[in-house]
Amino acid sequence: MLKIKLLLSEKRYAAVAEELIASGHVIDDNAELLLTERQDHPDFLMAKQDGALVRLGLAEVTFIESLGHEILAHSGGEDYRLSERLVRLQNILNPKDFLRVSNSVIVNVHHIQSIKPALSAKFLLTMTDGAKVDVTRSYYYSFKAFFSL
After folding, report:
1. What average pLDDT values come out for the chain (149 residues) when binned by 10 residues?
2. Confidence at residue 12, expressed as pLDDT on a 0 to 100 scale
3. SS3 breakdown of the chain: % helix, strand, coil, rounded to 5?
4. Where are the beta strands (DSSP E) in the chain?
5. Nearest Cα to Cα of residue 141 among 111, 89, 99
6. What is the pLDDT of residue 68?
């Protein structure tokens, strides 16, 4: 019996989970083994909120941030704890939808409400939920290139 974490698209998750469970494996968000799709990006992530595992739709995620050893996804005014590291999330999230803007933040570009230039090659983003996010100097030029600024 293997414990396996799944990071799959919505269309494949149920079928793969059913097949793995039928063959005696356990689907576990804390498993050491991770099964992902090649050249595809997940539609959701498994997250924890109030001690329960929930499916968090990525289209609704405003931004994801690292606070020490904790990774939080912000969605609809709620915070969800993720078990993936930020660098891993950056690699699996669709780069057309998610952009790294600092060492500790990845934003959903569809949830950027406004972009305000700041001093010293920085931007201040206002997200659709009202949160303020800094684009740091290290990510300034890649951010400008993404939006053709």
Report:
1. 81 86 87 77 87 90 94 94 91 93 97 91 93 94 90
2. 81
3. 25, 45, 30
4. 3-7, 26-27, 33-36, 44-49, 52-57, 61-67, 70-75, 78-82, 98-102, 105-108, 112-118, 122-127, 132-135
5. 99
6. 87
Contacts of 115 (CB under 8 A, 6+ apart): 123, 124, 125, 147, 149
With tokens 């149920």, the residue in question is: 14
Instruction: Report residue 95: phi and psi, to 5°.
Output: -70, -10
CA distance 21 to 147: 43
Nearest to 45 by CA among 56, 35, 33: 56
Find tokens 């669709």 and name the residue.
Answer: 94
CA pair distance 18, 14, nearest whole angstrom? 6
Please classify residue 75 by burial: count the beta carbons closer than 10 Å to its beta carbon, then call 0-12 exposed, 13-18 middle and 19+ buried. buried
The pTM of the whole model exceeds 0.90? no
